[in-house]
Amino acid sequence: MTSPAPSRRRVLQAALAAPLLAPALARAATWPERPITLVVPFGAGGGNDVTARTLGQFLEKELGQGIVVVNRPGAGGEIGINAVADAKPDGYTFGILNTPGLVTIPIERKPRWTVDSFTFVAGLVDDPGIIAVHPDSPIKNVPDLVAAARKDPGAINIAVQALGSTSFLSVRMLEMVADIKVEGVIYPSLPQGVLALAQKEVQGAAANLGEGMVMSAGQPWHVIGVMSDARSPIAPQIPTFKEQGFDVSIGSLRGFVGPKGLPKEVTDRMAAALAKIWADPEYIAVCQRTQQPLRPMKQAEYEAYMASADARFRAMWAKQPWLQQ
User: Fold this and answer.
1) Residue 88 and residue 261: Cα distance in Å, rounded?
2) pTM for this model (two decimals)
3) Would you tell me which of 162, 177, 184, 190 could form a disulfide with 76, CB atoms 3.0–4.6 Å apart?
4) CA of 127: how far to CAs of 92, 119, 224, 262, 298, in Å?
C-alpha cells in the first residue's frame, strides 16, 4: 500500500522552515568556533576555581578551542551567577556554579535570575561540609561540640563564609538538628577562617572537606566530622556527623551550567566531551591530587538534584529563615 502524498500545506511549511533551521543546525555542527568563557563566581584559588581550571585544560583537548576562566567574585557568588544567567545562549559562556548558592540566593533575596534561568549540563564535584577545630581544643568530635554548645549557648564561635554559603548553612543545620545555639562568625574567605582558627579567635571553622584540606595545609586543623551520608573517599578516616548521632548532610555541588536556551546540539556536544573527560585516568588523578571529590552527574540527574535541593532549602527557610539569625 502506498503512503498518501503529503498535503500542499505541509510541503509549503517544510519549505519555509528549512532556510530558518539550516543556519542554526550548521552553527551547532561547527561549534565551537572560538574560545569558550568559563565563569567562576568566586576568587582565584578556591574550590570552584580549581575545578574550573582543571576541567578547562581537558576541555581544550576535547573541543579544540581555548577555555578562558574568568573570576567574577562578589555578593556570595551572585555577581558571577549573574554573568552566566545574562549571557547569550550561544554555547560560548558557561559557569562552574555551586549549590547551595544557586538555590539559596533566590530564596534569601531577589536576584535577577531564578533556578529556571539556566541550562544544567552536568554535575562535577560534590565537596561535603565539615567542621574543624584546633588540635589543642577539648572538642574532639561532634558530640563534644554539641555538649559544649548546650552547656553555654552562644559561646561557641564557628568561622563561616558568606550568608547562605555551604559553611553558613551547615552551622544552621547543626543547630536545628541538635537543638543548640552557636555563633557563626563571617569571614570573607576560607583562608581567613583557617587563620582565625589557628590563632584561636574562634573555636571551630566550617568549610568543605576538599577545599579545607587544601587551604589548611600546614595549619592546625582537626576535622571532627563530615556532613555526608557516607564517609568521603578522599578522607575515609573521618566519621560522618550521622555516624556520631547527628543527621546533618550538606555540601557544595559544583556543576557545569549555561544560560537558559542553549541549543540541544551544543548541550549534547558538551555533555559528550565531559563524559570522555570523566573516564580519563589523568583527569581522575589530577582531581585526586587537588582534593576534588568527583561526582559525575549527567543532565537529567543534575536537573533532578537541583529541583530536590530547591525544595529542601525552601522548606528549611520556611521553618527558620537563616538571615534572621
Assistant:
1) 9
2) 0.84
3) 162
4) 27, 22, 16, 27, 17
